[in-house]
Every structure is written in structure tokens, then in C-alpha cells.
Amino acid sequence: MLPYVIAFFAFLTALIFIAAVYFSKIVLYMRTHNDLDIFLAEAEARKFDKDVYERLTKQEVRIDSPMGYPLHAVFIPAPGPASSRKTVILAHGVTSSHSGMIKYMDLFLPRGFNVLAYDHRRHGKSGGTTTTYGLYEKLDLKACVDWVFEKTGPESVIGIFGESMGAATALQHAAIDSRAAFYIADCPYSDFTEQLKYRLRIEYRLPAFPLIPIVSFVAWLRSGFRFGAASPIRTLHKVEVPVLFIHGTEDTYIPKEMSVDLYEKKEGVKGLYLAPNADHAEAYWKNKEEYNQIVGQFLEGIGVIKPQLQKAQAE
Questions:
Q1: How far is CA 207 from CA 197, 200, 210, 211, in A?
Q2: For residue 162, what are the β-bridge partners?
Q3: Could you tell me if 191 and 212 are in contact, meaning their C-beta atoms sit under 8 angstroms apart?
Q4: How far apart are the C-alpha atoms of 274 and 313, rounded to whole Å?
Q5: What residue ranges define each of the domains in the chain, with the CATH number in brackets?
Q6: CB atoms < 10 A from the CB of 29, how many?
Q7: pLDDT 10s digits, 234-267
Q8: Cis amide leading into 207 (omega within 30)
Q9: For the segment 16-35, what is each residue's pLDDT rounded down to a tens digit?
Q10: Residue 157 · residue 181 · CB < 8 Å
């Protein structure tokens, strides 16, 4: 009897290990989309005006990551004869690229902001070998902030807008770098481990234990990334700058409750907009006018834009 028990547990252990290797590969090396394909798909869906975008003055930029690879970015100066000292950095979601953030530029260019949209590590035209959901990405974002200050001067005003993983990365960056004037986090996860538990249950009908701790350990062996290290809500107490949280009420990928939890945890100046009839990353697309108004009110309320200027430029 004992040999059969040992054989069973050996088989079960091997099965769990194989599953852990498989899922760690999915997490670290999730398939990304081609930047040109994203650009064309977003333009075809009329999420931005392709002709208007192509007429904008643009500068392709290389930013060196402290992790040892290049980051690709596009810098678009605010329209007008004078140089602006206000810049927003756009951080995209997992599998996407900076082209997936073009639609959000209309929120900021008319309000006098320059825009820096960049590709996360292992996405778009940037380097890097793994995706770590904020662990290393937040350091790349800090390098982008450094670049903007060098470009526009030490007295510049910088805001950071993130979508999905980009939003979670932005919040993790806020905990280590207090130089940004504001953050806007659209559909972030509050804790990467909790997000994985949710997706594991929804997509695979599997329990979190013991799989996720073992997958996290295997991911750490492969890349130095431990799932618990990507947890915006655990470091939110360090964030003092204003944050506007946004989430679609019908989000089936990252539950809206994660943004609600982040909002409730955040101390100081904050805002929360739960966008109706919007699935994941659809809050702006499904509620453009209200979304634009909410962002304008937030920026006005923290003194980044003047009330009369915001009203005139948003019309």
C-alpha cells in the first residue's frame, strides 16, 4: 500500500510542478500584440482620428532603463507656439503598446500638456525579457519621469496616466517617487496575487492554493519576480500625491471593487469615477464626454490647470 501512496504523491507533485512551470511562463511571457496592429485596430475602431494624429509633431525617443535595456517612447509637444512645461506620461496595459494610449491624448493635448507615451519592457519596441506587472516596470516609469524633467526643466509639472497594468505600475511608482503632481489610474488591479486568484478561478476553475504560491516561486527563480511584490494597495500608504481612480462598472477582467478598495485605502486628495456600461479599459470609450469632464474637474481641483482655461480648452 505504501508504495502506491508514495507513487501517488510523487505523481501529484510532478503534476503541480509542471503546472507551475506552465503558468509561470504565461505570466512572465504573456503574448504581446504588434504595435502597428494595435495602431491600425484602434484607428479602425475610431478610438482616435488617424489623420489628426499623423499631423501632430512627434519625436521618437529612446530612454535607457536602469534594468539595462532601451525603452521606446513617443514625445508629442502641446500645440501652440510656446513650449509647455506640463507633461503627462501614458502607461499602457499588458499585451498592448504606446499606440493603445493614443486615444487618451485628447484629454491632455488640448489642455496644454505635452504627452510622452512609452512601451513597457517586453512590449512594443522596448527591450526587456519578462513582464513583472510593476516590479521592474515602476523603475522604467521612473526613468521616463527623469527624461521628462531633463527635457522640460526641473520646475516642470508631470502627471502620470495609466491603464490596467499601466495604472497598477503607476501606483507602484508613486510609492517610490514623489515628483509627479498627479496620477490617474484607469482599471488597475489592487494586488497582482489577488488578480491571479480571480483569473485562475474564472478562466481555469482552479483553486489558488497550492498553485499560486508555487507558480510565484518558480517565477521568482526564472526572473526575480515574486507575485507579492506587485501590490499597489500594500504601498498606497506611501502615496501622498492626488490620485483619480477610474473603473468600468461592467469590467469582467479586473473587478471594479479593486479600484474601490484602492480609493478607500488612499489618504489625502483623491477621486473615484465608476464609468457606467464599460468593460475592461472601456471607461473612456463608452463615456467620453463624462470622462473628459471628470478628468478636467480633477485637474482643476488640484490646481494643475486654471478653471477658465480648462473650460475653454475642453469645449
A1: 8, 7, 8, 7
A2: 91, 185
A3: no
A4: 24
A5: 1-30+195-228 (no CATH), 33-191+230-314 (3.40.50.1820)
A6: 14
A7: 999 999 999 999 999 999 999 999 999 999 999 9
A8: no
A9: 678 788 888 999 999 999 99
A10: yes
